[in-house]
Amino acid sequence: MITLNNVSFAWNKTPIIDIPSLTIEAGQHLFLEGPSGSGKSTLLNLLAGVLTPQQGKITVLGQDLTQLTSSQNDQFRSNHIGFIFQQFNLIPYLSVLENVTLPCRFSRIRKQKSLQQSATLNEEAIRLLSNLGLDNTELQQRNVNELSVGQQQRVAAARAMIGSPDIIIADEPTSALDADHRDAFINSLFTECEKENITLIFVSHDSSLEAHFPVQLNLNEVNQANSSTKEVV
Questions:
Q1: CA gap 86, 99 in Å, rounded
Q2: 38-49 burial by CB neighbour count: b if 16+ within 10 A, else e?
Q3: What is the pLDDT of residues 152-185, one digit of tens each?
Q4: Residue 226: pLDDT above 60?
Q5: Most buried of 3, 94, 181, 193 (most Cβ within 10 A)?
């Protein structure tokens, strides 16, 4: 699903990522850990094609991301990668349902997959939100800036999951949830990923979540860049 070969990236000549080799298998649920400054967020942006390495090759779904133009990378990401951002990045003037269905406006592939699950995009959004514990009809019609932080986090997750992308990258997706909602969220995320054979890359500082994941990776074990380097997000 994902391979990295001799990938390096630096901010202002300061090395952040130096990974000789890394492979993530299709359908794998990977827990990625590492202290602040280890390059986690930079690596996620490289895997998503948001950043381009200064050296090396990143292959996702057989496509060498380093050979794509910026616009091609944007389209590839829209079609194949769902991203749960640490800061959510919800559109404040859109409703909950409009935020969740937004990826389908940019990806015909994800729109078609959504309509294979439900009769309409809104129905698919409601299904995902309900699975994540946000099944209040009135809440689903609200503007997202009227929701609590925990509710916004679940909207961001549903947006990443809609249209069954091949890969979901989750950057600290449970930071605003209490223990009960956190575990329910992870179970729902796993269920959706397993149903569609979605590869999940999950980053969290919460080491107690490791037990949920069959595969764990400490970034310091594969990243040869200076571990004292301050991570730039």
A1: 16
A2: bbbbbbbbbbbb
A3: 888 999 999 999 999 999 988 887 778 877 888 8
A4: no
A5: 193
Q: What would the two tokens of residue 209 be?
A: 């979540």
Q: Are 78 and 103 in contact (CB under 8 A)?
A: yes
Is there a contact between 18 and 10 (Cβ–Cβ < 8 Å)? no
DSSP 36-72: TTSSHHHHHHHHTTSS--SEEEEEETTEEGGGS-HHH
Burial call 59-74: b when 16+ CB within 10 Å, e when fewer: bbeeeebbebeeeebe
Residue located via tokens 């001799």:
6
Residue 77, burial from CB neighbour count under 10 angstroms (0-12, 13-18, 19+)? buried
Cα–Cα separations (whole angstroms), residue 92 to 78, 95, 147, 182, 188: 20, 8, 11, 24, 25
Whole-prediction pTM:
0.89
Averaged pLDDT, 16-34: 94
Q: How far is CA 75 from the centre of its chain?
A: 16
Say which amino acid occupies 168: I
Residue predicted with more confidence, 74 or 182: 74
Residue type, 68: L
Q: What CATH architecture does domain 2-222 belong to? A: 3-Layer(aba) Sandwich (3.40)
Q: How many residues does the chain have?
A: 233
